[in-house]
Predict the structure.
Amino acid sequence: MINVHISTRKCEYNIDLTQRITIVFGESSTGKSALFRLVQTFFDVPNVLKCSYNCFPLVYNPHSLDILRDTLAIKEQVVFIDEDDSALRDCKILELLANSQSYLVIITRCVKGLVFGWNNIFKMSSIKGYHYLEPYFNFNVSSYRIPSVVIVEGPNIAYEFFKALFSLKGINVIRSNGKADLPHLIKHYSDSHNVLAIFYDYGIGDVLLANHKCFTCPRVQCFAADSLEYANFPFVQNAAI
């Protein structure tokens, strides 16, 4: 596991990178811009920023995706990127990460518009001008076992696809009746089952944030279908064989 630690008189950011994509979110004045500026200014000052990998702030420009591709091609990089950067709107970013040994940290105001990276989230907080990070959702891949229930929130064609994929392995596939029904199904089944939840609705972020405690259960794993992140897990690959 890679750790990024940034400390000054006015802030302390401690980020454990357990996934290829990490989200750092927070409201206005909680230190998002400050975090980006600190990485940009002190990336090579060890008494301020400590990390075994190189930290690189991707400053927005029309060629961000090209710069990101070149950066990820270099081993052991931690790339910090703003939510508005055009590179995040390109599906190629997932392919770049899949073939890289580097990590991506997305700094955003809210997670609801993002279609990937739900499994390692930190929330920014501020007390009397002092900024810090709190773990919001951290999924431990090594402790997760094969799901016995898969819940799909999305169109019927998506449900039929995942039903055909997982039913061959004897895994029960259930369709959520809209995004509001997803937390209820997760709470119900996670009491006694390992649950994999796959969702399509971009507005699901509001539901996840409002019910985030039920998603922090060790038995629960959540994926945005568009991200294809779930395809990297062995139990999914085995189901497809």
